[in-house]
Design goal:
Radius of gyration: 19 Å
Shape: globular
CATH superfamily of the largest domain: NAD(P)-binding Rossmann-like Domain
Oligomer: single chain
Number of helices: 11
Strand order of the largest sheet: 3-2-1-4-5-6-11
Number of strands: 13
CATH topology of the largest domain: Rossmann fold
CATH class of the largest domain: Alpha Beta
Order of helices and strands: EHEHEHEHHEHEEHEEEHEEHEHH
């Protein structure tokens, strides 16, 4: 029987990964402090009896004992302080969660005899890239404490592989969207637009809307984590569509799907916002056999349908 420990497993991305792992006959231990995740996200998986939940901060020393008792084959590390603005306001807490938390997770994986760690990084490590699409070899020049903490994460993963023989794969997601994403969290522009339009409100676009992002559907993304458990070692891979979409194009597509007839409101650009972002996913194809298969329109249609159903229930 396969076993996986998923930190941040009650969150938006983590809960979809838990669903996929359960589908693939894996026993899962979720470690989550529920600061941004929710047990509701795990309801379906828990009904199937393959999921245990330990409510705990990843910085807690007790994590090592919890992991050792469970003896996971793989540790999927998704727990993070992922708000750029909050990292600027409180860089100490950002470092505690993202740096100290990562070291604690690696120590827990080592204590438990895990054969691999698969960890979530961020395109924030690249800052404003000089060339697009961004490859894994691009210069890392983070422009926020959050980006710095994610850069340090990779340094620790390399160290633990070299010193203790702990294999890893680091996954850099593009802008993730899909069911369960919280419109109140940073980066969830699809969820923000969808919630506003279904309520008949005009969404706000910061800047002129020409800024671009690479969008990847959450179910595609978690497949990359599952594949990385069995393929690749000592590498970073980008998990994106490889296509740029402007925020205005995104707005218009969501408006078409929701039937929203209004136009967006515009506000001044936010400090630190990246102008253009798109990831090169070719290494993911080569190293772990992954690529995004859900088109943006299909993913948005499924996402809007989920939000509509949630509003009715």
């Amino acid at each position: 029987m396969k076993k996986a420990l998923v930190t941040g497993g009650a969150g938006f991305i983590g809960s979809h990964l838990v669903d996929l792992l359960v589908d693939r006959d894996t026993d899962v231990l979720v470690v989550d402090d529920l600061s941004s995740g929710s047990l509701d996200n795990l309801a379906a998986a828990r009904r199937r009896g393959r999921v245990a939940v330990h409510v705990m901060d990843v910085t807690a020393p007790e994590l090592r004992a919890v992991a050792a008792r469970f003896e996971p084959d793989v540790v999927h590390h998704l727990a993070a302080q992922a708000n750029v603005g909050r990292s600027l306001e409180d860089p100490v807490r950002d470092a505690e969660v993202n740096v100290i938390g990562t070291v604690n997770v690696l120590e827990a994986a080592r204590a438990a005899g895990a054969r691999k760690v698969v960890a979530a990084s961020s395109a924030a490590v690249f800052g404003n890239p000089k060339r697009l699409p961004v490859t894994e070899r691009a210069a890392q020049a983070p422009e926020s404490p959050y980006g710095v903490s994610k850069k340090v994460m990779e340094d620790y993963l390399r160290l633990y592989r070299a010193r203790y023989g702990l294999p890893y794969v680091l996954i850099t997601p593009a802008n993730v969207y899909g069911p369960r994403q919280d419109p109140g969290l940073e980066g969830g522009v699809v969820a923000i637009f969808t919630a506003a339009m279904l309520e008949g409100r005009r969404p706000t676009i910061y800047g002129d809307g020409s800024q671009t992002r690479d969008f990847v559907y959450v179910e595609d993304l978690v497949d990359a984590f599952a594949r990385a458990a069995d393929a690749g070692d000592g590498i970073r891979v980008n998990a994106g569509s490889g296509a740029e979409t402007t925020i205005l194009e995104l707005h218009d597509t969501v408006a078409e799907i929701t039937g929203f007839a209004g136009r967006p409101e515009f506000a001044a650009p936010r400090t630190g916002d990246i102008v253009r972002s798109v990831l090169d996913p070719s290494r993911a194809r080569e190293a772990i056999g992954w690529e995004a298969w859900t088109s943006l329109r299909d993913g948005l249609t499924a996402t809007v349908a989920w939000y509509r159903a949630t509003r009715r229930s």
